[in-house]
Specification:
This protein is α/β, with parallel strands linked by helices and 321 residues long. It is 41% helix and 20% strand. Strand 8 (133-138) and strand 9 form a beta hairpin.
């Protein structure tokens, strides 16, 4: 049986996996992302790492159906190029497919990193192989991917920009230029911003308020941990967060009615508490039939979602051609 390679390209590390066609990981490794020299070292280091590993495992290009990669930035899937991945120092167009195929001799497929993670969770994670799954990743920003009837939805190239659903038209200005995007209040940085703003108006006893007033470092993790301990300000902050995310999930589900909306990313580490809070608000805003047919779930694959989903790009692309 021929194998797949999945690559999850991030600003700090590049994660790799060799998988079976059924999505079982056989080997995993990672390298640091070398963003020096305008990011021009990244692709050669990926090629070198793949060839080195294949040599160690006694494998050749013929043993593989293809390589799939999830990348930040604006991805042109057909041409296999990436531009505007600023955390990689890639401001100019990078011919990723051309360079990796030339360096490894293995067919190469690429998509946006959030789309790849969505494929991973829908194939081997919380989506349980479902044909209709929406994935939301809550990290430094808010990303997402939409799988409908077994296919990733790309639209004209920007489908699945869940972080830019407007949840408060009079809200914070987003990096995209609009006001009140989900990303401004449901990302790790957005939650801290909510905490800082709400603490100014909060007059009661609160450890969170004390941390903020004292200039201590506050993260989204701090906010959720204090909310668990029934800190009054932290509870107000997470309730706001649940409201915004629950509202966004209801809007998504009312349009798409997927089997599951899967929530992943660093913020989702808040776990069952987050799930319960988002579900309550989802049920307030969802269409009656949608409430009972779409389930909100926590992601299951953690750091493996990206490599597993990236590997599945190979099978998806082979179906297309």
């Amino acid at each position: 049986m021929r194998k797949l390679i999945g690559i999850d390209l991030g600003g700090t590390t590049v994660k790799f996996a060799i998988l079976t066609e059924k999505g079982e990981i056989q080997q995993k490794w990672s390298i640091e992302t070398d963003i020096r020299n305008e990011g021009n070292n990244i692709i050669p280091s990926i090629v070198e790492s793949i060839n080195h590993r294949l040599n160690i495992y006694g494998l050749s290009a013929n043993d593989f159906l293809g390589i799939g990669m999830g990348s930040p930035g604006t991805v042109d899937r057909e041409n296999g190029t990436v531009i505007g991945a600023y955390n990689l120092n890639w401001s100019t167009l990078k011919p990723v497919k051309e360079l990796i195929e030339a360096g490894t001799g293995i067919p190469f497929y690429i998509d946006n990193d959030a789309n790849a993670a969505a494929l991973g969770e829908s194939w081997k994670g919380a989506g349980e192989g479902g044909a209709d799954v929406v994935f939301i990743t809550l990290g430094t920003g808010v990303g997402g991917g939409v799988i409908a009837e077994g296919n990733l939805i790309h639209g004209r190239g920007s489908a699945g920009e869940i972080g830019h659903i407007i949840v408060d038209p009079n809200g914070y200005r987003c990096t995209c230029g609009n006001h009140g995007c989900l990303e401004t209040v449901a990302s790790a940085t957005g939650i801290v911003r909510l905490a800082r703003d709400l603490s100014e108006k909060f007059a009661g006893e609160s450890e969170l308020k004390w941390f903020i007033d004292d200039g201590q470092e506050v993260t989204s993790k701090t906010v959720f941990e204090l909310a668990k301990q029934e800190d009054r300000l932290a509870a107000i902050v997470v309730d706001k967060f649940y409201f915004y995310l629950g509202l966004a999930c209801a809007n998504i589900a009312n349009i798409l009615n997927p089997e599951a909306i899967v929530i992943g990313g660093g913020v989702s580490a808040a776990g069952e508490m987050l799930l319960k809070g988002v579900e309550e608000n989802f049920h307030k805003f969802a269409f009656p039939q949608v409430k009972t047919s779409t389930e909100i779930k926590l992601a299951q694959l953690g750091n493996d979602a990206g490599v597993i989903g990236a590997a599945s790009l190979v099978s998806h692309a082979r179906k297309r051609y």
